[in-house]
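User: quick one, fold this
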Amino acid sequence: MKKIISTAFAGAALMALSACGSSDDASEDAAAESVEAPADDAMTDVEAPVEDEAAVNAAAAEASETAETVQDTAAAAEAAEDAAMDAAAAADAATAAAEDSM
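Assistant:
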């Protein structure tokens, strides 16, 4: 009984696998024409990129504003440095005056 069941199962599996197969040669390479055709078809209706002048002008204006801000910041930093040097000189003078009066 076990041999009949296992033989029947093996036969059913053999039939199922043989139904999935085909007689084409599996070593045959896929033709490039059939592989690339879907990609070529997908690219036929694509428009060429166009430069957006409004975006370019907005970017140029933003760059100009950024440059002005950098210049203003540099000027403010230089003024702060000068003020710090003046404060340090005043502190040194006050320290020297205090030491002389002792």
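User: anything notable?
Assistant: The radius of gyration is 42 Å.
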